[in-house]
Amino acid sequence: MNKIFTSITSDFEFTGNVKKDSYDLLIKHGRFVIAEHTLRVVAKARSLAAKYGIDEEAAELAALLHDIGGVYPNSERLQIAELLGLKVLKEEKELPLILHQKISKVMAKDIFGITDKTVLDAIGCHTTLRPQATQMDMLIFISDKLEWDKKGIPPYSAEVEEALSISLEAAAFKFIKYQLKDREKLAVVHPWLKEAFEDLKSKINE
């Protein structure tokens, strides 16, 4: 395990059960909201995986670990990302919150031993998506947005759920379109998000 992660794992006893260990690690570091959000995302991801014929176990793994980087507070994420040698974009320096997706991907591989590239890639872009997104990428992205970590029902929920009756592409596009509609309210617009939007737009002929 990368020594960078020693500070968050040194006194933690891993059981080998990813569901238990990921939840308990978040709880140990006081990330109660993220832990509960994660369980809801897992349920949604499994449901969507069944609907679209995607590997449910892989979807659950990606959902379980998508926010594991949240053990690090926003104030530490830029430093951790740099120590891990990750490429940090200008927008991520401005809003380090976004870096948790990249950190989570490394943690999933290094701490939890995940080797499935499809799972790791979905974790690594679950906040912003990316161009040429896979079905798993979009599944985790949408699950995360529909089962958000705030109270109440997301204002875009009905639109995105309706789009899911068409395809994952349509649903992902609908969410990003909603988000970019009030672009001035966004702290930053991540380049992956913009590229994903244009890519999806061309694919669904919007």
What can you see in these coordinates?
The chain has 206 residues and is mainly α. It has a single domain, classed as Hypothetical protein af1432 (Orthogonal Bundle), CATH 1.10.3210.10. It is 62% helix and 0% strand. The protein contains twelve helices and no strands. It has helices spanning 6-9, 18-28, 32-52, 56-65, 74-83, 90-94, 100-110, 117-124, 135-146, 157-164, 168-181, 191-203. It is globular.
Sheet of most strands: none
Supply the helix-strand structural class. Answer: mainly alpha
Q: Helicity, in percent?
A: 55-70%
What is the arithmetic mean of pLDDT?
A: 96
What coarse outline follows from CA principal-axis ratios? globular
- CATH level-two architecture: Orthogonal Bundle
Intertermini distance: 45 Å
Q: Total number of helical segments?
A: 12
Q: Give the low-confidence spans.
A: none
Quickly count the domains. 1
Q: Order of helices and strands, N to C?
A: HHHHHHHHHHHH
Beta strand %: under 5%
Q: Regarding CATH, which class?
A: Mainly Alpha
Give a count of the beta strands, DSSP E runs of length 2 or more.
0
Rg measurement, Å: 16 Å
CATH superfamily descriptor: Hypothetical protein af1432
CATH topology: Hypothetical protein af1432
GO molecular function, one term: nucleotide binding
Pfam family, one: HD
Organism: Clostridium oryzae
Keywords: Hydrolase, Metal-binding, Nucleotide-binding, Nucleotidyltransferase, Transferase
